[in-house]
Amino acid sequence: MTDLREPADGIPASAAGAPQAPDPRAMPPWLPRAIGLFLLGVAGLFVVWWLLLRLRTLLILLLVSLFLAIAIEPAVNRLARRGWRRGVATAVVFLVLFVAAAGFVVAMGSLVVGQVSNLADAVPGYVEETIALVNRTFDANLSSDTLVAQLSSAESPVRRLATGLAGSALGIGVQLLTLLFQLLTVALFTFYFAADGPRFRRAVCSVLPPQRQREVLRAWDVAVEQTGGYVYSRALLAAASSTATWAFLWLIGVPNPLALAIWVGLVSQFVPTVGTYLAGALPALVALLSSPLDAVWVVAFIVAYQQVENYLLAPRITARTMSLHPAVAFGAVIAGAALLGGVGALLALPVSATLQAFGATYIRRHEVVQEAGPAPA
Question: What three-state secondary structure class fits 372?
Answer without folding.
Answer: helix
